[in-house]
Amino acid sequence: FAEFGPGDLQDFLAQTVGVSYEAGEKILAEGESGRQMYIILSGKVAVMRKSGKRPVHLMNLGPGESFGEMSLVLPANIGRTASIHALERTAALRLDYDNLARIPDTAAKLYRNLARTLATRLKISTDLVVFQMQHGADIPAVATIGKMPRKKTDY
After folding, report:
1. Chain centroid offset of residue 86 CA
2. Angle in degrees, CA 73, 88, 76, rounded to 5
3. Average pLDDT, the chain
4. Interval 109-154: pLDDT, tens
5. Which band of pLDDT confidence, cut at 50, 70 and 90, is reported for residue 93?
6. What is the 8-class DSSP label of residue 80?
7. Helices (H) and strands (E) in the chain, counts
8. Alpha helices in the chain (DSSP H)
9. What is the DSSP letter of 5?
10. Can you list the alpha helix ranges (DSSP code H) found in 41-103?
11. Residues contacting residue 116 through CB under 8 Å, at least 6 positions apart
12. What's the CA gap between 50 and 68, in Å, rounded?
């Protein structure tokens, strides 16, 4: 929350709701609709993404980290890009997209912070793809990422 002053933090917190989840509980499902982001206060969650029908573990997040940020930036008709489930009892703050209109100055600061977070994640992803390509990994063309592979047929 860089750039947040005491008043900004107070305005932000007034727009959030406290939520809690038990270990193993699903918080978000990949593909479902939603316009909320979460900030973890305590506990740990796993971020998962499907590759075909197989789940792939992307990372774990803990206190002070957030998830669901992309839903505040992407259009409403884009579903969640990953699934999140609690690895242990987890408490978080939930912020709904619609509440941001109530705090425009604070929202602008939040979006700058989200841009930094998402840019950092993009850099890490790009670095991983480059590393894999340099070491002979079979990386699909960018146009095919996220699409089901075609079945091979004999001609």
Report:
1. 14
2. 15
3. 85
4. 888 888 888 888 788 888 877 877 777 766 555 545 555 544 444 4
5. very high
6. P
7. 3, 8
8. 6-14, 70-73, 104-134
9. -
10. 70-73
11. 2
12. 16
The predicted structure's pLDDT at residue 7: 85
| Residue 26 pLDDT grade (very low, low, confident, very high; cuts 50, 70, 90) | very high
CA 30 – CA 54 distance, rounded (Å): 13
Q: How far is CA 62 from CA 3, 30, 58, 85, 154, in A?
A: 22, 20, 14, 12, 48
The letter for the amino acid at 127 is D
Sign of the Cα torsion 71, 74, 77, 81 reads: negative
Q: How far apart are CA 5 and CA 25, in angstroms?
A: 34
For residue 84, the model assigns a pLDDT of: 97
For the record, the structure tokens of 35 come out as 């316009």
Q: How many CB atoms lie within 10 A of CB 23?
A: 12
The widest CA-to-CA distance across the chain, in whole angstroms, is: 68
Residue with tokens 């973890």: 40
Q: Cβ(121)–Cβ(65) under 8 Å? A: no
Neighbouring CB atoms inside 10 A of 115's CB total 12
